[in-house]
Specification:
Strand content: 15-25%
Order of helices and strands: EEEHEHHEHEEHEH
Structural class: alpha/beta
Largest sheet: 8 strands, mixed
Helix content: 25-40%
């Protein structure tokens, strides 16, 4: 098993410095880079563990604090386990923070993260992969559309509000995406109803994006997050197979499709 080194790093952006977690194989050799957009709860122990798992598979992984304008992660206090009761209060405090991260700010930040990775010795030359969870799935799609020459693959899991009537909805990035896209949707997710899934699928198909969208039966929004009551171990392992398979196809020629 590959030894992994994880460190806290700081990434300069147009609006100050973002704290972030960097995981990579301990040998220091350049590896394909993966930029991870977290859910609203942000960088925390379970997220670092997930980044380490991707790094063990042979990648350099950057997980930035998406809300760095409000201070270091976590920007609100989090319990060790987030149950349904705690979730409501946490989101009450997070909602104004989330609203401050406009698409314009998020895209500018993404450009900063990509530039930082391009200069990182432990990141291989060439395009990167993106993965996003919950709100991060929409950020990943937007980033792929904004920087098509820098992104080889995009994965998103239990994303919400991905194909709304908003003129800035993430699905509208589809015509500019050149990467392969994989999306794993939660079956029990009011933030992404069937009509949005259909609209998203149509947008990707009409744009000629190589993609696969799957609905995970019985899974709730947040099914990959083991520190929450929404966690689903079976769906999580399916997510890992899909994510690592996508990374193989993007960066390891000859991997099965």
């Amino acid at each position: 098993m590959t030894d992994v080194r994880g460190t806290e790093v700081r990434v300069p952006t147009e609006d100050g410095t973002a704290d972030a977690y960097l995981a990579r194989p301990a040998d220091g050799a350049p590896r394909p880079a993966v930029l991870c957009f977290t859910d609203a709860f942000g960088v925390r122990p379970t997220v670092r563990e997930a980044a380490d798992r991707v790094a063990r598979a042979g990648y350099t992984v950057l997980v930035p604090n998406l809300f760095h304008r409000r201070g270091p992660a976590p920007v609100v206090e989090l319990p060790g386990f987030i149950d349904a009761e705690a979730r409501g209060e946490i989101f009450r405090r997070l909602r104004p923070v989330m609203q401050e991260l406009t698409p314009e700010r998020a895209t500018a930040d993404a450009g900063a993260y990509l530039r930082w990775l391009a200069e990182l010795p432990e990141a291989a030359d060439g395009p990167v992969a993106l993965t996003g969870y919950c709100m991060g799935a929409g950020l990943a799609l937007r980033t792929a559309g904004a920087f098509p020459d820098r992104v080889a693959a995009v994965a998103g899991f239990h994303g919400g509000r991905l194909a709304t009537d908003d003129p800035r909805s993430p699905h509208l990035a589809a015509p500019r995406i050149t990467a392969e896209v994989y999306l794993g949707h939660a079956d029990e997710d009011p933030s992404l109803p069937p009509e949005q899934i259909e609209r998203l699928e149509k947008a990707l198909t009409d744009a000629g994006v190589r993609h696969r969208c799957e609905v995970y039966p019985g899974a709730e929004h947040g099914f990959t997050q083991s520190d929450t009551a929404s966690y689903d171990a079976k769906a999580d392992e399916r997510h890992w197979a899909a994510l690592l398979g996508l990374l193989d196809r993007a960066f390891r020629p000859g991997a099965p499709t």
